[in-house]
From TrEMBL, chain A:
PANTHER family: VACUOLAR FUSION PROTEIN CCZ1 HOMOLOG-RELATED. It comes from the Eukaryota. Residues 23-148 form the CCZ1/INTU/HSP4 first Longin domain. It comes from Phocoena sinus (Vaquita). Belongs to the CCZ1 family. One of its GO terms (biological process) is vesicle-mediated transport. Residues 370-468 form the CCZ1/INTU/HPS4 third Longin domain. This is CCZ1 homolog, vacuolar protein trafficking and biosis associated. Residues 218-344 form the CCZ1/INTU second Longin domain. One of its GO terms (cellular component) is Mon1-Ccz1 complex.
Automatic annotation (TrEMBL), chain B:
Residues 26-91 form the Regulator of MON1-CCZ1 complex N-terminal domain. One of its GO terms (biological process) is regulation of autophagy. It comes from Phocoena sinus (Vaquita). It holds the Pfam family RMC1_C. InterPro entries: RMC1, RMC1_C, RMC1_N. Residues 335-583 form the Mic1 domain. One of its GO terms (cellular component) is lysosomal membrane. The lineage of its organism: Eukaryota, Metazoa, Chordata, Craniata, Vertebrata. The gene is RMC1. This is Regulator of MON1-CCZ1.
Length: 480, 609
């Protein structure tokens, strides 16, 4: 891993590696300062803020010029990125005239020259455009989830309000971008679904419907188990970004008290409830405290049509998490939270242990307990279903992969090839490191397999992949 | 009190007979359920009416004194008349043979014709009962048992009267019902009915206690497996259902009345006259009259008015009297003619004004499906036994009866759910929740869900534009795979493009729909994909070349056409040793097209040997 190697290489080896890093990130609207001398008005957000004003204006101006200039070649598809020796710039126009720009420094290898002076070498071809363009788009989606659209902020309070919101959001959010560990999965922005038998799924449906009935102000519900989605009452696109937030930000932050278990000191600080394991991940920490604040994150969904603002209540019992979303115009009271806790807590606790039990039974039946022999990534564009045996569990800081970054890059390259044509395709690559990498695209599905069989020939590799499809994907229409 | 509040009624067509008076004696035979009206000791006529007889029997016999009892044998073959306490006369000369005798001191006896069991009251107190069971000309003695009297009697006189004992079959089992009156010494709050279970084999056992919570004069009936207790003082009745959950102490179950006490529904009878031709207006029938005599299981006779009624239970009024829907279902599902009411309860709980909560709806569905599953299982084991050839082995194998309590998917679909899903004013969340709850319940009882229910779910989701919900249901295989469902999905593609993928996946899983998959792919001009698919499953030797060449030509992609054409040339070569098409394949047009585009020399040459 690039990140891990950075420190290790310092002593013995002659090389030092530096992973890609965020150089700057800014948002501007050219309409806000069209005249000379007013250029500063265009800038809505700029990171790092310490940069001198004129440099900010210069950088924004340069981007504006590039976008304008390239537009003449391709009016419908403006430039998405600019490659330079030292860095790469990514452009995104999520709302009309609002531009977001992210500048990423290329990875660096620092070598000792003969005379002992360090020589810096930029690796210009390492970064994948699609990966970082997707990261930039995600930045906007995440902002929109918690703040609504840029336009809405303008309507509500003009440029001042928009600037405040951008500052408040991105100041924190940019610190959580881990650019060194972005890969194919960032392109997909997929959702991992929890595999479940029909009966348990129906029980969960029944539970959700009952909760929505008893807690009548609940508008939408989402249900997750083990950080994997089981049900979404939200539309797909909104769920996609909410899922990202839950699994990469909210859940990891709450992992410690859970691992600590029920009787640990950490646990003891939690509001004691002997009947169930339920607790709020957002909102009040202690329901017994009459002063407890019932503040929930506000989220915005269906921004294209109904534009709904909602309070996000996340409630968890054991490995089962439920998101209840209620209309933002209704302020949830402590009484409501207590009622929710008393209704949802016991039922969710039972349901969570049911799911766990059923899951273990199914695992035993299907014999999938054993480590998967294949390293693969699967993605379905239709339902955003994503499955990876390459990625380990995500931690708040990095997503760990079990394969070499070079192989991950090959996967990204294959994906770029797939994007270029509509037809079904299959690409087989023999990597330098004696791995075979296979990419298959069938209708809306993509499958990437990494095989560690250096003596295998093309036919054998093809057979292996067929075997994988027959065992893992026999219940879908996936062309051989 | 509205008519919708009475849950007991007298039957519409009672048996009418000449009422009792000094010259007309009336007798009732419990075995044949016949009423005898004997005028002047029979000299001026005996009229016999049974509940099912269209034509009453009437005859005359010599008046040889007061008749104490008169009965027919089964099928009205032999008449027996008792005029003194020790002689029975058969009008025709017959031989009677003593088959068996038992020597017991008997206070009184009671015979239950349905079960062919006679109870004899023995001992001084009369509370030790000795049952005998008659079958095929034999008489078997069952173990005797003791009825617990309310308080230890001080005297040694007869303490158990036959008036307080009844025998009836409830849910297929014979019970001795004992009406235990309130005793001041005990701290009971009122009288109670004690049910002793009297099995054909084994000892009689005290099983249930029905708490009446009142005192006074009572009479018992058993209707549709319900114990009905009439109370004369208040002129009301209560009903008990021993299958409903009661308070169980380990040996005995305590029951309270299922419903609040109500009078039998008031009714009218024509003014009693010698001939019922009078057009006089009917008069109200006096209910709970002291001249009423009650017989088991469901007979009420008014000798003074000359009527015999069967008591009946009305189910519809009970729906509003039993607010607990789960208990209501338990009750209704045990009743003989419950289906209409059960379905109306289901419809009612899904109306906007009378809407039940989802947990209640789930409970109701579960109870219905439990009965449904029981029947399906019985049906299945019957079929299995038939197949195993047990049908010859004896009369034990009987097709399971489908009672009215069996409410299947088709009933629910036709009478409840399809109308429900049409309701415009119904919130869509509730609508979907109810449909899913029914499917959940069916699955829980491992009942295969019928395709039309899945279709209803899909149509409802589509109507409300809930495509993503539909997608998720399909993803978790909640809606079972079937060809019709796959076709339905295909038809949704223009509204929701992912339906195409969902449909193909479903066809693939069915594994019997390979032809359909090829058709779908060809219709999408995915000729190569279709060919690869059919080759993958080994079906490429049997497909029509013309169909694929047609599709390839339509794409206007010459290279694709070339590939497909070459594939079939190779197939021809492999199968027939020659790459050219046979006339039967009707590919002349495509061969010409191939030549036109790629030239004659591009055609594959036959391999020479």
């Amino acid at each position: 891993m690039a990140a891990a190697a950075a420190g290790a290489g310092a002593g013995a080896a002659q090389e030092k590696q530096f992973p890609p890093a965020l150089l700057s990130f800014f948002i501007y609207n050219p309409r806000f300062g069209p005249r000379e001398g007013e250029e500063e008005n265009k800038i809505l957000f700029y990171y790092p803020n310490e940069v001198e004003k004129n440099e900010k204006i210069r950088n924004v101006g340069l981007c504006e010029a590039i976008v304008q200039f390239t537009r003449t070649f391709s009016p419908s598809k403006p430039a998405k990125s600019l490659h330079t020796q030292k860095n790469r710039q990514f452009f995104n126009e999520p709302e009309e005239h609002f531009w977001m720009v992210m500048v990423v420094r290329n990875p660096i290898i620092e070598k000792q020259s003969k005379d002992g002076k360090p020589v810096v070498e930029y690796q210009e071809e390492e970064l994948l455009d699609k990966v970082y363009s997707s990261v930039l788009q995600q930045c906007y989606s995440m902002y929109k989830l918690f703040n609504g659209t840029f336009l809405r902020a303008m309507e509500d309070g003009g440029v001042k309000l928009l600037k405040e919101r951008l500052e408040k959001f991105f100041h924190r959010y940019l610190q959580t971008l881990h650019l060194q560990s972005c890969d194919l999965l960032d392109i997909f922005g997929g959702i991992s679904f929890f595999p479940l038998d029909k009966m348990t799924y129906l029980k969960i449906q029944s539970f959700i419907n009952r909760m929505e009935e008893s807690l009548s102000i609940v508008k939408y519900t989402a249900f997750l188990y083990n950080d994997q989605l089981i049900w979404s009452g939200l539309e797909q696109d909104d769920m996609r970004i909410l899922y990202k937030y839950l699994t990469t930000s909210l859940f990891p932050r709450h992992i410690e008290p859970e691992l600590a278990g029920r009787d640990s000191p950490i646990r003891a600080e939690m509001p004691g409830n002997l009947q169930h394991y339920g607790r709020f991940l957002t909102g009040p920490l202690n329901l017994n405290d009459p002063e407890a604040k019932c503040r929930f994150p506000k989220i915005f969904v269906n921004t294209d049509d109904t534009y709904e603002a909602l309070h996000l209540i996340v409630y968890k019992a054991m490995s089962a998490a439920v998101c209840f979303m209620i209309d933002a115009s209704i302020q949830p009271t402590l009484d409501f939270c207590r009622r929710l806790d008393s209704i949802v807590g016991p039922q969710l606790t039972v349901l969570a242990s049911d799911i766990c039990e059923q899951f273990n039974i199914n695992k035993r039946i299907s014999g999938s307990e054993k480590e998967p022999q294949f390293k693969f990534i699967y993605f379905n564009h239709m339902n955003l279903a994503e499955k990876s045996t390459i990625h380990m569990r995500k931690t708040p800081s990095v997503s760990l992969t079990s394969v070499h970054p070079d192989l991950m890059k090959i996967l990204g390259d294959i994906n770029s090839d797939f994007t270029r044509v509509d037809e079904d395709e299959e690409i087989i690559v023999k990597a330098m490191s004696d791995y075979w990498v296979v990419g298959k695209k069938s209708d809306q599905r993509e499958l990437y397999v990494i095989l560690n069989q250096k003596n295998a020939n093309l036919i054998e590799v093809n057979e292996e992949v067929k075997k994988l499809c027959a065992t893992q994907f026999n219940n879908i229409f996936f062309l051989d | 009190m509205g008519e919708e509040d009475y849950y007991l009624e007298l039957c519409e067509r009672p048996v009418h007979f000449e009422k009792a008076n000094p010259v007309n004696c009336v007798f009732f035979d419990e075995a044949n359920k016949q009423v005898f009206a004997v005028r002047s000791g029979g000299a001026t006529g005996v009229v016999v009416k049974g509940p099912d007889d269209r034509n009453p029997l009437s005859f005359r016999m010599e008046d040889k004194g007061e008749v104490k009892c008169i009965k027919f044998s089964l099928e009205n073959k032999i008449l027996a008349v008792q005029r003194t306490s020790k002689t029975v006369v058969l009008p025709e000369k017959r031989n009677l043979k003593l088959l068996k005798s038992q020597n017991i001191n008997v206070n009184w006896y009671m015979y239950c014709p349905e079960s062919a069991v006679i109870l004899l009251s023995t001992t001084v107190l009369g509370n030790v009962l000795q049952p005998f069971y008659f079958r095929a000309g034999t008489m078997s003695k069952l173990p005797k048992f003791e009825i617990e009297l309310p308080a230890a009697p001080k005297s040694t006189k007869l303490s158990l009267s036959e008036r307080d004992i009844a025998m009836a079959t409830i849910y297929g089992q014979l019970y001795v019902l004992f009406l235990r009156h309130h005793s001041r010494t005990s701290n009971s709050t009122g009288a109670e009915v004690v049910l002793y279970h009297l099995p054909r084999e084994g000892a009689c056992k005290k099983m249930h206690i029905l708490k009446l919570n009142r005192t006074g004069k009572f009479a018992l009936n058993v209707v549709d497996n319900l114990v009905v207790v009439h109370h004369q003082d208040t002129e009301t009745s209560v009903i008990f259902d021993i299958k409903l959950r009661g308070e169980f102490d380990g040996t005995i179950t305590l029951h309270h009345p299922v419903l609040p006490a109500r009078s039998i529904q008031p009714c009218q009878i024509p003014v009693a006259g010698p001939a019922p031709v009078t057009s006089q207006s009917p008069i109200p029938c006096k209910l709970y009259s002291s001249s009423w005599i009650v017989f088991q299981p469901d007979i009420i006779i008014s000798a003074s008015q000359g009527y015999l009624w069967n008591l009946q239970v009305k189910l519809q009024p009970i729906v509003n009297l039993l607010p607990d829907k789960g208990r209501l279902m338990d009750f209704l599902l045990q009743r003989r003619e419950c289906k209409t009411v059960v379905l109306s309860v289901c419809s009612q709980m899904l109306t906007e004004s009378d809407r039940a909560t989802l947990p209640v709806i789930a409970t109701v569905f579960d109870k219905l499906n439990q009965e449904y599953k029981k029947y399906l299982d019985a049906e299945q084991s019957y079929t299995l036994a038939l197949e195993a050839g047990q049908s010859r082995s004896g009369p034990f194998l009987r097709r399971p009866a489908r009672t009215q309590a069996v409410v299947d998917q088709s009933d629910m679909y036709t009478h409840v759910l399809s109308a429900f899903a049409e309701k415009k004013e119904m919130p869509q969340k509730f609508m979907i929740a109810v449909l899913m709850e029914y499917i959940r319940s069916l699955n829980q009882f491992q009942i295969t869900v019928q395709h039309y229910l899945h279709e209803l779910v899909i149509k409802t989701l589509v109507q409300h534009n809930l495509f993503y919900t539909l997608h998720q249901f399909l993803q978790y295989h909640v809606l079972s795979d079937s060809k019709p469902l796959a076709c339905l999905l295909l038809s949704l593609e223009s509204f929701y493009p992912p339906a195409h993928q969902l449909s193909l996946d479903m066809l693939k899983r069915l594994s019997t729909a390979n032809d359909e998959i090829v058709e779908v792919l060809l219709s999408k001009h995915q000729v190569l994909a279709a060919l690869r698919f059919i080759r993958g499953i080994g079906g490429h030797d049997n497909i029509s070349a013309r169909k694929f060449l047609d599709a390839a030509k339509q794409t206007e992609d010459h290279m694709l056409f070339y590939t497909i054409f070459r594939f079939f040339e190779q197939r021809n070569q492999r199968l027939r040793g020659n790459p050219s098409f046979t006339p039967g394949e009707h590919c002349e047009e495509h061969v010409a097209f191939f030549k036109q585009v790629f030239g004659d020399q591009a055609l594959m040459r036959p391999t020479t040997f």
